[in-house]
Amino acid sequence: MRFPVRKALHYSIRLARSRLVRHGLILGYHRINRLSWDPYRLAVSPDAFAQQLEILHRYANVMPLHELAEARASGSIPPRSVAITFDDGYADYLHVARPLLDQAGFHSTLFMSTGYIGREFWWDIQARLVEMLDPATPLSVSAGGVKFDWRPEACRAGPDRKTLAMELSRLLLPVNKDIRLQFLQRLLETTGSSLPEDPGNQALSVRDLGELSKLDLVAIGSHTVSHPMLARLTDDQQRTEIAESKQALENLTGKTVNGFSFPHGSTSAASIRFVEECGYRYACASHNDVVWRNSNPFCLPRIWIPDCPGKNFLGLLRRWL
């Protein structure tokens, strides 16, 4: 019982601080798309996003993330400052989100996982596999020392696909990427079907990144190579993920990559130090809070935005601004 109380207390303190100190907000998104099934709640519909941008136009001062980071360092954050960020690097950022942002005249920062360029993310493959399964049927899959047993009778609220998807994600999230792929292949074999890649779930291509790098209202940042939980890796593995993604993006875009985003919000003192040592100027984490003068520039908080209409978004915005 202590942990929820402590978490609620920290949240209340952060909200109170947002009323007392000059601050800004970094908004976090993943996808702007209308999905038939979104078990991880990664997507905001285009209609909702358009409404949210209209609210930002009326009530906020939207600025590039690097300007907000610089204003934090100088202690001169303008009133109602907001920066917009996207994690992962889905292609729908270019094809769906970008036109809406351009219409509003808003800058945004895209954090790209370079190991998935032009490919489908593993969690989307997993979600599509779960859609092929019957959650009322027991399931047992193992690969590379990782074993998953699904017992429908153990589900208190009854077996459903979302619960199955979340249980699989919890198992596979910290697993080595090669073992994870083996596991997903075994899971596919249980369905007796094939699973071609879904173009609608693919990440940006090399060509897409080149196109985005030419736009004034876009900054491209790093989100590691393989999207791991950094804090669970060895020091050498962390440095490789952090440094190689930066180098790859700079080679592809011809521009210096200054921003970084921690996948899954997984941070440690070591991973934060490695980001600074690799030459980044700022980094975003995933904990909810405002950005103020004492915020760590290599662990900046964000507010994650749900799929909600403008009225609800305004309530969320007013809570923090």
Protein architecture, described:
This protein has 321 residues and is of the alpha/beta class. It has 2 domains: 21-119 and 204-320, TIM Barrel; 122-191, no CATH class. The protein is 43% helix and 14% strand. The protein has helices at 2-20, 46-59, 65-74, 92-104, 122-131, 161-172, 177-191, 206-212, 235-253, 269-277, 310-320; strands at residues 24-29, 31-32, 43-44, 61-62, 81-86, 108-112, 139-143, 146-150, 218-222, 259-261, 282-284, 303-304. Strands 1, 4, 5, 6, 9 and 12 form a 6-stranded parallel sheet that branches. A two-stranded parallel ribbon has the order 2-3. The longest helix is centred in the first third of the chain and has 19 residues, at 2-20. The radius of gyration is 20 Å and the shape is globular. 38% of the residues are buried.
